[in-house]
Amino acid sequence: MDAIRNFFRAAWSSAERLEGKTVVITGANTGIGKETAIDLAKRGAKVILACRDIDKAQAATKEVIESSGNENVVCMKLDLADGKSIRGFAESINKDEPRLDILINNAGVMVCPYGKTADGFEMQIGVNHLGHFLLTYLLIDLIKKSTPARIVNVSSMAHSFGSINLDDLNSEKSYDKNKAYAQSKLANVLFTRSLAKRLEGTGVTTYSLHPGVIKTDLWRHLNGPQQFLWKMASPFIKNSAQGAQTTIYCAVEPSLANESGGYYSDCAPANCSAAGKDEEVAQKLWELSCRMLSITWE
Ligand SMILES: NC(=O)c1ccc[n+]([C@@H]2O[C@H](COP(=O)([O-])OP(=O)(O)OC[C@H]3O[C@@H](n4cnc5c(N)ncnc54)[C@H](OP(=O)(O)O)[C@@H]3O)[C@@H](O)[C@H]2O)c1
């Protein structure tokens, strides 16, 4: 229904400016993250590209500066598959940045073969959910000092196929790469809801979103037949600049200033799955994430 309604709506655009504001975007060296960086830099923000590969990040930073005409764009090393790297990144931001107005948790891995992060978490839940959970926890005080501020979590419609396996979040008993991706994207939706509840009245608002089906490097782990189907469908699939629009909408749209915890698609509010609204699972996931990361976040 959302998709049909949105098909007939005019494309979203906004002249909102971001001078004096600072934005962190994870996984901004390519795909949706890089296009988001270009757009927010054009609006005048200081943009920090938080990326795991510093060579790729430097090349992307140059491109963002050239495309936006904004020199106030930098990159920093952040590997979300390594708690030490996340802590180091957050420490530098907290020390050097007087404010953080918009945090965009965009980085992601999809349907990769079984692997573990440096801290022993299954790679998809580790990077897509736990890494961003820890990052947000470490930056939350700075974000609270920069209100009105926003936290945007890039999820996926794939969350609808997911469930949270509280007994085996790391898929150690059995690993299905599709289920693990869907679980991690559902975790993004639930984290956004839980975070909104905890941040009520602080001036920090949260958003999760589906960016669309977008031609990016994310699809690198598809198998042979899937790659073939993907190639056949690719003329009908959106490019990264189109794919960045809902992220940008959640980051800047003035009418969303008083909304928090919701899910968006095609630059509009959208319905997430019933599992994405399950307060009990959201609370249990929050507690489990804290235990796994050895942090206290009430
Ligand atoms: N493309 C789609 O159709 C689609 C659909 C629904 C949702 N999404 C979501 O959109 C977001 C962006 O994806 P995309 O399509 O733009 O994919 P992409 O082009 O593959 O970009 C993903 C970014 O995440 C980074 N990343 C991966 N692992 C990381 C780690 N351990 N630490 C830090 N960064 C890491 C990648 O870095 P490297 O370049 O170094 O690998 C890359 O910069 C993801 O959260 C994805 O789940 C995408």
UniProtKB/TrEMBL annotation:
One of its GO terms (molecular function) is oxidoreductase activity. It holds the Pfam family adh_short. The keyword Oxidoreductase applies. Keywords: Oxidoreductase. InterPro entries: NAD(P)-bd_dom_sf, SDR_fam. The keyword Oxidoreductase applies. NCBIfam families: PRK06197.1. PANTHER family: PHOSPHATIDYLINOSITOL-GLYCAN BIOSYNTHESIS CLASS F PROTEIN-RELATED, RETINOL DEHYDROGENASE 12, LIKE. Belongs to the short-chain dehydrogenases/reductases (SDR) family. This is Retinol dehydrogenase 12. It comes from Channa striata.
